[in-house]
Amino acid sequence: MAVSRPARLHPATRIGDKGEAPPVTPPVTMPRFLARSEPAGRLPSRRDWLRVGLPAVFGTAGLGRPVSSAPGPGVPGFGRAKSVLVVFTSGGQSQLDTWDPKPDAPEEIRGVFGTIATTLPGLRVCEHLPQLAKQAHRYTVLRSMTHDDLDHGSACYLALTGQFHARKSSNPSPRGTDAPALGAVLHRVRPDGRFPHSAFHVNGPLLTPREPGPGQYGGGLGRGYDPLDLGNVTDGTALLHGMSPPADVPPGRLGARRDLVRRLESAAGTDARLPASIAQVGLSRQAFELINTPRVRDAFDVEKEPGRVRDRYGRYRAGQACLMGRRLVEAGVPWVTVFFNHNIRGQDFHVGEPDHYGWDTHNDIFEDMKAHLLPRFDHSVSALLEDMHARGLLEETLVVCMGEFGRAPLVAVEKTAAGRGSPGRKHWAACYSVVLAGAGVTPGAISGRSDKIAAYPLSDPVTPGDLSATLFHALGIPADTHYEDLTARPARIVTGNPVTKLFGS
């Protein structure tokens, strides 16, 4: 098999790869919280729970104000982004067969795919990513992501919340005590008054593998902090119909219904006999806000896009989800998570239906990636980057392509009930890659370095907590920001520290 050898890396294109010691991160000091008004030692009453619980559904009034210490002036990347757009590749996208190929390794390591040059000198990617290769001058490839959680449910939780699950390497169900999704945390510390929620999910919920996994919701902040999930946007007609005011209800009657909801809110806030109605009232209020926010409602209609644009993104679930992500960012939504594939391994249950395929390629990796996963990913994500650049959105949007982990260096055969028994790769979290673009991220660069088989980082390891801190950093929110949850327990928004070397000066 012919193999393309990598060109010598241009010294100016690698971030932090000069052999110097990593920068020393100053210790984080726990900030002092605002004094609470309750007398010391008194147990909370049901009325107290309503007072604390209602803000968790309707807003932030009544909860302790977030406290942080902002970085000093001149810190690279701080506050450069107005929005974050995460393209989540669930299932474990193979670093060796995408962003970090090892063409000089033995075939049982490198696999069967060749590599191609990109617009970035020294960077070669999988041969089945030709469109993304042409966009390489716009993004940074981070090749040194690392952690030690080896199952999808808890690893997706880690990626989506920045926190380890209590049951590491497992597939747990969502619980009310979970850490909140990063978008829910954003809504807690910086609610956006223009929208009913600061965070939207597209093409969810994420199934890990057959039921929605944890980490996508409000968790300990309450159901009112759940990011708004638009689901499969190729079913946009039903979505828009549900958001449109009923034709047989005149504006006056709709207003009267909204007044009723407001009175119910007030009653729930003063009468401890109504706790069960709180969440439903909050959801009703959000529904009214959506109906009466034309900018958001119009963003949900991908049919407003010209046919050639929809074709460029791809007329399938993942492609139209990426297009929806761009439309939401353009409308001003601060946090958008696009689940590029809503199932980690739907090919087990939907053989021959690529809309359901995920990156959990224990077997059939080269067939499924070549025929379905890589062509769609290349087509849609390159369209997203190209389109956002053309519209000027990349200047103020941090785009991140990421998953929960990578794949093992050694190709192996692992037969499953639905698999065809051809080679695949097992889970691997010790080293994998993500891609970042926009909002001051150095364009056309490589950050971090893996060993000769992409098994472990050789330089600049980055944890999911660090990556989460970097996203908040780009939005101008310091990593040491703290907030209080429903039980008045202080929590730091992330466990890591921002990777400022990813940003240009």
Short description:
With 505 residues, the chain is of the alpha/beta class.
Rounded mean pLDDT score: 82
The Rg value, from CA coordinates, equals 23 Å
Largest sheet: 9 strands, mixed
Quote the beta fraction.
5-15%
Q: What is the succession of H and E elements?
A: EHEHEEHEHHEEHHHHHHEHEEEEEEEHEE
Assembly status: single chain
Please tally the β strands and state the result: 17
Notes on the protein architecture:
With 505 residues, the chain is an alpha/beta fold. Strands 1-13-5-12-9-2-8-6-7 form a nine-stranded mixed sheet, with helices on both faces. It has a two-stranded antiparallel ribbon with strand order 3-4. Strands 10-11 form a two-stranded antiparallel ribbon. The chain is 29% helix and 12% strand. It has 13 helices and 17 strands.
Structural key phrases:
two-stranded antiparallel sheet; 29% helix; disordered N terminus; 12% strand
List the helices and strands and how they pair.
Elements: E1 14-15, H1 46-58, E2 83-88, H2 107-110, E3 115-117, E4 124-126, H3 130-133, E5 139-145, H4 152-161, H5 182-189, E6 199-202, E7 228-229, H6 236-243, H7 251-270, H8 278-291, H9 294-299, H10 307-313, H11 317-331, E8 335-339, H12 365-390, E9 397-402, E10 406-407, E11 427-428, E12 432-437, E13 445-447, E14 449-450, E15 457-459, H13 464-474, E16 482-484, E17 490-492
Parallel strand pairs: 1-13, 2-8, 2-9, 5-13, 6-7, 6-8
Antiparallel strand pairs: 3-4, 5-12, 9-12, 10-11, 14-15, 16-17
